[in-house]
Specification:
Blueprint (H helix, E strand, L loop, with lengths): L1 H11 L11 H14 L2 H17 L6 H19 L4 H7 L10 H4 L3 E3 L4 E3 L10 H9 L10 H20 L4 H12 L2 H4 L4 H14 L22 H10 L11
Antiparallel strand pairs: 1-2
Helix pairs in contact: 2-4, 3-5, 7-8, 8-11, 9-12
Length: about 250
Amino acid sequence: MSTQKNTDSNESEFFSLSYDMYYSKDIRDHVEVIIKSGDKERCEFFYKSAIDFVNSNNCCYWIIPLIQRCLMPLQNKSDDENLDWDDVIYLMYPAGKELAINPKKEYSLFYCWRSQTFKLDEDKDEEQEFFEILIKHFSDAQNIDDTGDDFYHTCITTLYCTICKMCQEDIAQDELVDLLLAVFNDQYLKDAEKGDFIWGVISETLTSLGVNLDEYKDESNLWRDEYLVNFDDVATYLIQNDVFDHDYIPS
């Protein structure tokens, strides 16, 4: 009976971006449940499962810094309320440097601030819109409608790594705003009426970077009289908090 119970528990902690753990909120809720259980075996299994999952699905790297971000407020809560969660949080804490690849090298683009477009590398000549370059480089699909879940996660991971890269290279605040708007207003997907897809990529990326989007929304006072989110303040947060150094991966 005990063995069966442990097996069922482990299976429930197996990490997969599907069913009840597809979005950042679901992952955050799941992480919190495991931490509050105080079960070290569950924490270790979830940690190993998350690392194995990303090693098998490199495009899903974004969930590693996301899990880290989920654990940070739990650590603060533990400290403030003397909950003694330190050990279980430590057991559950993943890091990109533990992966078999360096995703920040594989998935970073170069942002061209003059044209507000992107390139695979600073020395490359061809500049393209964000989603266009990803479909051509990371997918065999001819258009967005032919892509699957992997492409969605590739977009999040690439935007995450690109923002980290550009912040590390001291991008100016106004240029970072333009980068975010270049993705938000990407005509390649706007023409395909994929606004929800675009916002899903941006919101999950910013959440993984530690941004609480609710703090930057004001329906009664739209930013630039058009946008629900104040990207000026978001860009300031990203630069001031050195997001590029959050999940450090040695070269």
